[in-house]
Write a structure and sequence with these properties.
200 residues; alpha+beta; four-stranded mixed β-sheet; two-stranded antiparallel sheet; 4 helices; 25% helix; elongated
Length: 200
């Protein structure tokens, strides 16, 4: 048990009229031997709660409403045909872009024109030095070039092959299956460009 003792002492002064009672601080004496010991308190471990991630909608308020794609593009029927002359012109420009190509050759075109002339076909409209064979979405191209003196001819021819295939594929959306490059001539540093024959 706990013992608590309080002592009150009354002191008298010289004058009989003045009597004061002073309370001394009381002393507490606690004995812990009489308190039964409580069992230790155990707090069960709680697994950590994962943080809550707010769900954000895919379309925010600022986004405009999705516009329905036109269905007409998938429904419209028809064919797209690219003329051989278009492929030849694109191939000629791609070949002339390559460093080391002085001009287009004329050997292939002369041979093709002679065949067309014998067969009774009309005059050829494509550029000289280029012949294209288009079939469905694939194309094969023959290119004749005149190389500039001082350049490695094989490197120039390989670059022409790569550039023609890349440009025709990118611009016309056709698969290039073959590019044949014929080097007809080499242009020397002082040579003038041969004048193109006047067309009637």
């Amino acid at each position: 048990m706990t013992d608590v003792s309080v002592e009150d002492i009354t002191e008298e002064t010289d004058s009989p009229a003045e009597t004061t009672t002073a309370a001394r601080p009381f002393s507490l004496s606690l004995s812990t031997s009489s308190i039964p010991s409580a069992p230790p308190i155990t707090i069960p471990s709680v697994p950590p709660v994962p943080p809550v991630v707010p769900v954000v909608p895919v379309a925010s308020v600022a986004d405009p409403e999705p516009v329905a794609e036109p269905v007409a593009a998938a429904v419209v029927k028809g064919r797209i045909k690219v003329a051989d002359e278009v492929v030849e012109k694109v191939s000629a420009l791609a070949a002339l872009e390559v460093a080391g190509v002085a001009d287009l050759g004329s050997g292939l075109t002369d041979a093709v024109e002679s065949i067309h002339g014998r067969a009774g076909a009309g005059a050829r409209r494509g550029p000289r030095g280029v012949n294209a064979h288009v079939q469905e979405r694939t194309v094969a191209v023959d290119v004749a070039i005149v190389a500039e003196y001082g350049h490695v001819v094989m490197d120039v021819a390989n670059e022409v092959k790569t550039n023609v295939a890349r440009t025709v594929s990118r611009m016309l959306g056709m698969r290039v299956v073959e590019v044949n490059v014929n080097v007809d001539d080499v242009r020397l540093p002082g040579e003038d460009h041969p004048e193109a024959p006047a067309e009637p």
